[in-house]
Design a protein that fits this description.
The complex is a heterodimer of chains A (about 750) and B (about 300). With about 750 residues, chain A is of the alpha/beta class. An eight-stranded mixed sheet of chain A has the order 15-14-16-17-23-22-21-19, sandwiched between helices. In chain A, strands 4-3-2-5-6-32 form a six-stranded mixed sheet, with helices on both faces. In chain A, helix 10 (about 385-390) links the parallel strand 14 and strand 15. In chain A, helix 10 (about 385-390) packs across helix 14. The longest helix of chain A has about 45 residues, at about 30-75. Chain A is elongated. The two termini of chain A are about 40 Å apart. By secondary structure, chain B is α/β, with parallel strands linked by helices. Chain B contains eleven helices and ten strands. In chain B, the strands form three sheets. In chain B, strands 5-4-3-6-7-10 form a six-stranded mixed sheet, sandwiched between helices. In chain B, helix 5 links the parallel strand 3 (about 85-90) and strand 4. In chain B, helix 8 runs parallel beside helix 10. The radius of gyration of chain B is 21 Å and the shape is globular. The relative contact order of chain B is 0.15. The chains are: A alpha/beta (about 750), B alpha/beta (about 300). The interface between A and B is medium-sized, with 28 and 37 residues. Strand 1 of chain A pairs parallel with strand 8 (about 230-235) of chain B, so a sheet runs across the interface.
Chain lengths: ~750, ~300
């Protein structure tokens, strides 16, 4: 149709032709004609150019105006009549599970995607992106949909699915692209708009390169416009995202189909955890459930707690608008092992978003804390003070049940360290590089490490092997080892009993902490290039040197945290003797204050592994198996996808595995070997997405046309190209104005000339 | 006689062959229209009074005498034979133009006027001479009153237009010096020339006490510029060709042309020259009556 634009050259051609066709006459009064020409030539030229411009513009406007509806009928085909590459981006954030009616927003989005396919032209190609976090390309290379399928889809849409024969149904199901749309399942994560824009740009770039037959790209975002995904002021890297969006809107036709609703009520369980750090069968566990009302109305709801699939307790609560409330349950676990705890919110009909009404917690409940003492003092006798402090009855019947194993300082490499919740180094002299790496891996994986320092300790070796002195080894120690202090009379300074390890001595000055006699201790000093120096829990009063200092080690990856490493500047026995005075370094092991401090050290060092076993949707599940596990395959029972086989990577410290596809919330069970108890992992939604506040479409750049999906469906395609739908009318108006102008101008020029 | 009147129309006149025939037809036609004899009463020297008798033309009653004597007397004139008329005919190339609405070229039209005047003057026993010119004087016929001179005059004036420019200024100066006896100088030209120079020449003639009648012969197309479609105007008298859209130029052209005519007219008025605009689609009696009016004015 736009070939008619060539007609715009007609006025110029006519003008040129008219100059070739003329009559000839002899003329006597040529002198006056020449004078007239000279006088009028500039005016005439200007008039001719003006008329030429008006006439050309008139033709252009008429052609575009006439071609406009034709192009729209073709579904927005380009000027050259080429097919389009249509990229459908469906919002995959879990707020799309909101059900305003019979169908969720996500189901509605899928239907809209099919509608767009139905209304497309022959030869158009389709790509599909799911805007999850991270965004996923479902169909990258443009897929084609046959005319027959599109016709059937269109008919299906018009007749609400009542008028298709079984054969036609089969054909629809056979179409690859439609099947991809049909099979889309809504993950329980957030929406990564920046990532989705990246995927779209990649698809467009690849499309231009590999499929040049497509004229242009059209991008449709079908979304609820949740602020958590679309509000650049709330999203990390929002400014860059806005620029990216603007750039895309500038280079393609970008349409946002809005499936969101204003003022959506929603209740959510936003937290489930425990204030305790160690969970055993000996003591009841406190479980705190946080519930939040994201709506503008008060709600009455019921909170249920289930343990291992069995309903355990429930509570009824009233939630004010925008209020947050914590419901605490107490549960006594009977058996050790992994337990799945689920908090469920129910009882309010107006809550149309079900996904965030559940929250899970995986707890590893222990019979006893497994502790390894690495005795660097030779005789097992020297470790009895530690043993007495950790397991006074030798049967694990204390309120903090501890099972202790003891090895000599050369046996680290022969033990499976990951079995232990905590390793206590007692006056260990030095470590080999392999031992250093082993301990580093243990700590980085979440294990606790307590080091009692004494006369055998080689500070250079500690600083080298455990202090990050070797290349590619992490710094585990919270402070640098200096040297043993000179002989003297020292005592403890509890530093105001602020630290939990000594907090219980506050008001119990006679418990023996302050009367502990210290003649020598290991001086510790801050690392020179440390990011931050951890405050000591206990100090030496006379010198101010730290006596106990601890720090959370970094994890294996940036942002992850490892286990806690605690340095004690004193030995845990009397084996450390001053060579001159022949006196032990301290009398602390026989003081009353020693057992509670050691137990507190253990509690502080032990990581209950809650962080590893409880992740958000989209984060990978990772763990390690003991070396002894022979199987190199592991089965993960995924609540969405069923049982999945995972290959286990063999490493020197153990067999690590990872499962990245945590798209749904719920309990994931990792089973290795036939008889082993499965490891339980709780995967929960990021409740930032529970806030259903919606972006006002007017906040989006003007170049983006926003179409409300809840309007008449038949109006939608027209509205989706609304920004251009009115253009041809404007061109028609412009053509009429130009025609009128041409008439007036021609008359005026003629009137002036004659 | 009525039939002869139609020959005052150039269209009808163009059908007649021969300048003499045309001249005689014009004069006879003109005479039949005014119902009076051209051969009597138009001399310039007063002779005597005679008493009015029935049938006399009352225009020649001497009202002064009537006022004194209360009787009707007619003025009687003697025939004057020494009045000399000089016909100056422009035969430059521009005079060959004939527009779409005209029946003849400007030169043919001017020749008709000149011939008619010659015929008329010779029949009054006045002398008439002829000068043809373009950028210089081409032919000269000395004044004479013998009716047989008519043939000579007509032969000289019956030429085709020259391929030359007009140069009226120098020619008029030249003629002012050459025409020794004072008389009536009749100029027939389109005057497409330098107007101030031309007027200076005319002034010179007036200075030599010649009575000057200027017949400004123009084609209707030159006055109205009626062209519509794209036209290539081929310039006469060595002027360049002009390809133009006539409708867009009409206003400007008419401005320039009207200014030219106005300047000529104003110059004639300033020098007391009888200016007679002649359109070639106009009946030719206008020319004769203008001449005769001028003659009578002078005599009166």
């Amino acid at each position: 149709m736009l070939w008619w634009l060539a007609a715009a050259a007609a006025p110029l051609l006519i003008h040129l032709l008219s100059r070739r066709r003329y009559r000839e006459v002899p003329w006597a009064a040529a002198e006056y004609l020449l004078a007239a020409m000279q006088q009028s030539s500039r005016r005439l030229r200007a008039e001719q150019w003006l008329l030429l411009a008006i006439r050309t513009a008139t033709i252009v406007c008429i052609v575009i105006a006439v071609a406009g509806p034709y192009l729209e009928r073709l579904g927005g085909a380009t000027a050259a009549g080429q097919p389009l590459h249509k990229i459908l981006v469906i919002d995959g954030s879990f707020s799309m599970a909101y059900k305003p009616g019979d169908a969720s927003r996500f189901e509605q989005a899928k239907q809209l995607a099919r509608d767009i396919v139905a209304r497309s032209s022959q030869g158009d190609g389709f790509s599909l992106v799911l805007m999850t976090a991270p965004a996923r390309t479902i169909v990258g290379s443009p897929a084609l949909v046959s005319d027959e399928t599109r016709t059937m889809l269109d008919r299906l849409k018009r007749t609400s699915g009542q008028n298709l024969s079984p054969e036609e149904d089969l054909k629809l199901a056979d179409d690859d692209f439609l099947r991809e749309i049909h099979d889309l399942k809504l993950p329980h994560g957030g929406g990564d708009l920046a990532g989705a824009l990246d995927r779209v740009n990649e698809i467009i770039a690849a499309g231009h390169k590999e499929y040049p037959r497509f004229g242009a790209a059209e991008v449709y975002f079908i979304t609820d416009l949740g602020r958590t995904s679309w509000d650049s002021s709330k999203v990390a890297g929002g400014r860059a995202m806005s620029k990216q969006l603007l750039k895309l809107a500038g280079s393609t036709r970008l349409t946002v189909v809005d499936v969101g609703q204003e003022h959506s009520e929603n209740l959510a369980v936003v937290g489930l955890g425990s204030p305790q750090r160690i969970f055993t069968t000996k003591a009841p566990v406190e479980l705190a459930t946080q519930v939040r009302n994201f709506g503008d109305q008060a709600h009455h709801a019921r909170v249920e707690l289930s343990v291992d699939g069995q309903r355990a307790q429930e509570r009824t609560i009233d939630l004010e608008p925008q209020a947050r409330q914590t419901v605490t349950f107490t549960h006594q676990f009977d058996a050790p092992g992994d337990h799945a705890i689920e908090a469920t919110l129910s009882g309010d009909a107006s809550d149309s978003l079900e996904i965030d009404n559940h929250r899970w917690l995986s707890l590893s409940v222990k019979q006893a804390l497994e502790t390894l003492i690495v005795n660097g003092e030779g005789s097992r006798e020297h470790a009895r003070y530690l043993l007495n402090a950790l397991d006074p009855y030798r049967d694990g019947s204390a309120s903090l049940p501890v099972h202790v194993e003891q090895i000599a300082d050369g046996g680290l490499l022969e033990v499976e360290l990951r079995r232990f919740d905590c390793i206590i180094l007692s006056n260990v002299g030095q470590f080999t590089p392999a031992e250093g790496r082993l301990l580093a891996d243990y700590v980085q994986s979440g294990g606790g490490l307590v080091a009692f320092l004494g006369d055998r300790v080689d500070p250079q070796n500690y600083n080298l092997e455990l202090g990050g002195g070797r290349e590619k080894t992490p710094r585990l120690l919270p402070a640098q080892l200096d040297r043993p202090a000179d002989l003297g009379h020292y005592s403890f300074d509890p530093l105001g009993y602020k630290d939990l390890m000594v907090h219980e001595f506050q008001g119990n000055e006679r418990a023996g902490l302050l009367t502990t006699g210290v003649s020598r201790y290991f001086r510790l000093k801050a690392w020179k290039n440390a990011k931050q120096t951890p405050p000591p829990a206990l100090a030496i009063r006379e010198t101010g040197d730290p006596a106990i200092v601890g720090q959370q080690a970094e994890g294996k990856r940036p942002g992850e945290v490892g286990g806690r490493v605690i340095l004690v500047a004193l030995p845990a026995s009397f084996a450390a003797i001053d060579p001159i005075s022949k006196e032990p370094w301290s009398n602390w092991p026989i003081k009353n204050s020693f057992p509670p401090v050691v137990q507190n050290l253990l509690i502080a060092a032990v990581n209950s592994s809650i962080a590893e076993r409880n992740v958000l949707v989209g984060k990978p599940l990772e763990s390690a198996l003991p070396k002894a596990q022979a199987s190199n395959m592991l089965t993960v029972d995924d609540p969405g996808r069923g049982k999945q086989q995972i290959r286990v990577a063999a490493r020197e410290d153990g067999n690590r595995w990872s499962y990245p596809s945590t798209w749904l919330s719920g309990i994931y069970r990792a089973q290795f070997g036939g008889d082993q108890q499965p490891q339980l992992f709780a995967v929960n939604v990021d409740t930032a997405e529970s806030d259903l506040a919606k972006l006002d479409p007017r906040e989006l750049p003007e170049q983006i046309s926003v179409v409300p999906a809840w309007s008449d469906l038949d109006q939608r395609p027209a509205a989706s190209i609304g920004a251009r739908a009115g253009e041809h009318r404007w061109y028609l108006c412009a053509a009429l104005v130009l025609l009128l102008t041409e008439t007036v101008v021609t008359w005026w020029f003629g009137y002036r000339a004659s | 006689m009525d039939n002869l009147q139609k020959y005052l129309d150039p269209k009808a006149l163009a059908k007649l062959q021969g300048l003499e025939l045309r001249a005689r037809t014009i004069v006879e036609g003109y005479v039949s229209g005014v119902h009076r004899s051209p051969y009597h009463g138009f001399s310039i020297e007063f002779a005597e009074h005679r008493e009015y008798v029935q049938g006399d033309d009352i225009r020649y009653i001497d009202w002064k005498v009537f006022g004194k004597t209360d009787k009707y007397y007619l003025k009687q004139y003697e025939e004057e034979t020494n009045l000399i008329s000089y016909l100056l005919l422009d035969i430059s190339e521009s005079m060959s133009y004939q527009g779409p609405a005209a029946a003849m070229t400007k030169l043919e039209y001017a020749q008709c006027i000149a011939a008619s005047l010659a015929y008329l003057v010779l029949h009054q026993q006045d002398s008439v001479g002829l000068v043809t010119f373009d950028h210089e004087i081409r032919k000269v016929v000395r004044p004479g009153s013998n009716p047989s001179r008519l043939k000579e005059l007509l032969e000289v004036m019956d030429v085709v237009a020259a391929k030359r420019k007009t140069a009226t200024g120098p020619i008029f100066h030249d003629l002012a010096e050459r025409l020794k006896k004072r008389g009536v100088v009749v100029i027939l030209s389109d005057l497409f020339d330098n107007v101030p120079a031309m007027l200076a020449g005319l002034k010179h003639m007036r200075h030599r006490r010649h009575e000057v009648i200027l017949f400004h012969v123009l084609d209707p197309a030159e006055l109205d510029f009626p062209f519509q479609q794209m036209t290539l105007f081929r310039g006469l008298e060595q002027l360049p060709d002009v390809l133009a859209e006539p409708r867009s130029l009409r206003r400007a052209y008419l401005e320039h042309f009207t200014r030219f005519v106005r300047d000529v007219k104003q110059g004639c008025r300033d020098h007391r020259i009888d200016y007679v605009p002649m359109r070639t689609d106009q009946p030719l009696d206008v020319a004769l009556s203008a001449y005769l009016t001028a003659r009578s004015t002078r005599v009166g």
